[in-house]
Amino acid sequence: MCPRHLSTRGTRAHAVAETTETERDLEETTVTEPTEPVLALRGVTAELGSVTVLRGIDLTVRRGEVVALLGVNGSGKSTTVRTLIGQVPVTAGEIELFGTPRRRFRDWRRVGYVPQRTTAAGGVPATVAEVVSSGRLSRTRFRPPRRADREAVRHALELVGMADRAGDCVDALSGGQHQRVLIARALAAEPELLLMDEPMAGVDLASQEALAETLRAQVERGVTVLLVLHELGPLAPLIDRAVVLREGRVLHEGPPGTAHVQGLDHDHDHVHPHAPVGAEIRTGLLS
Ligand SMILES: Nc1ncnc2c1ncn2[C@@H]1O[C@H](COP(=O)(O)OP(=O)(O)OP(=O)(O)O)[C@@H](O)[C@H]1O
User: Fold this and answer.
1) Which residues belong to any copy of the ABC transporter domain (predicted)?
2) Domain count, the chain
3) Ligand 1 — pocket residues by CB below 6 A?
């Protein structure tokens, strides 16, 4: 809870064995072959309410790839990502994560998810460190956090330049800082696959560049990335492939330079969600 109840339990001797366990976990999770699909959607359809939102999405992302999902507002980008994590049920088609049908997939520590930011206040009086620690739950389950967990949280905060705000209440952060905390939360589990829904939304240009650097380091580690974007921006050099959606279907797939020709410029009716530098935007971190 905010602002001063962070645990500092644990001893160094304890930690050595715990680090070993985490290393063992990591070894177990890096067995995917280089060209093996990390995620695959085949003919995926989905409805929200009574509206058909996805109309047969085919998408494969292989290990180490960085794929941008582009398209105008309402084309189904977020819904596609949310079907992958089971937040939106599919009405037809197949989804696989790491070669396992999604309905049987349980190894969620391999997946980091950054949700699309919202303007709804979460209302939970949590500190930055607590929110980022929640990203570690897929590894810690219900056991108390160990030194390796606290170390991973600290490292994730360092990666997004928020280590000095660990004890602050999330309510005290700006919109861009919230976004950085959400990214740190996803990184805390040291995932192999990062799913990011507009990770740069509301982040000023300098911070976008810092986050692009963070992402580059993840990609160099072999992390696979699928991210929803409205524009490539500082992430452009990292993107291997762009997939453009329109009305719940894949309209175009190819090198990122071709994406705008194929359906974005002509339908440029989407909102760019970037806030001006220093803008105070409240987000629901936990929603
Ligand atoms: N909870 C919901 N109930 C009904 N319809 C919804 C719901 N959420 C989204 N939709 C509709 O589903 C469609 C796809 O939405 P989605 O959020 O996947 O699009 P998007 O491409 O991510 O858009 P944006 O760029 O605005 O985030 C839109 O027409 C949207 O209005």
Assistant:
1) 39-272
2) 1
3) 48-49, 51, 53, 71, 73-79, 270
